[in-house]
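DNA-binding transcriptional LysR family regulator: structure, please.
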Amino acid sequence: MTEARLRTFVALADTGSVREAARRLYVTESAVSASVTALARDLGVPLIRRMGRGVGLTPAGTVYAAYARQVLGLLEQGRAAALGAADPARGTLRLAAVTTAADQVLPELLAGFRARVPGVGLTLEVGPSREVWGRLAAHEADLVLAGRPPAGAAATVLARRPNELVVVGAPEVAAAFAPASTPWVMREPGSGTRATAEAYLAELEVAPPSLVLGSNGAVIAGAAAGLGVALVSRDAVGAELAAGRLVVVDAPGMPLDRPWHAVSGTDPTPTTLLFVGHLLDAPGWTEAQG
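Here you go.
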């Protein structure tokens, strides 16, 4: 049950295709098939089944894939911790961030950190809230930049930065805003901002029409085009507000205070702490208390 076999199985689980898994891993298709067959033999249960032109996981395979991802994540985390313990400035750092944080908060931080500590190996994965917290839980990220971590998560909040959520719309839409009838432009399910918007509307006991768009940029562009109002971070719409393409809507109970959080697992690596130290030197960031 080698690391290589686990990586092959996870690649197959992710892609649903022997060909795509082989392409991802730069190996032959026969090597993928042989590796997964050997892993299933070691476990004594079938892990995959044929589904049309691809493959799917058996119930046992679905369960085992979650553990395999955690094992691989822990191995990567262990390597990062060992490298960081020897020299934090030459370790590795796996970041994960929600879209708005990646677009609006991280670029300057990463540029400054790269100039300050050029020897650190950096990777960044961007996705909706559910995805980035899943990466932390599976030990696939050393540090997450997002909203508040989910209840019960094995997570350590290391730093915070203010973040204000506002309702915005094109000037003509904002002028006629009515909570129960004005359309809302929303992110896809799994987005933290989407969940906050839905909770806000439920609290108002209204169910206005909504249009789902698949990215933060599309939501902002849709609101500016007059498709409806949107709940967004003020950080994400500074240019649109300054240009008058969007205005802040005078919506009840707004704005909302939803700070950014820099969150690690329960045992942050030395290189993670080095980055957090850099982050705390940036405007607005403060060390988490309690």
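Notes: The chain has three domains: 3-57, 87-163+259-287, 164-257.
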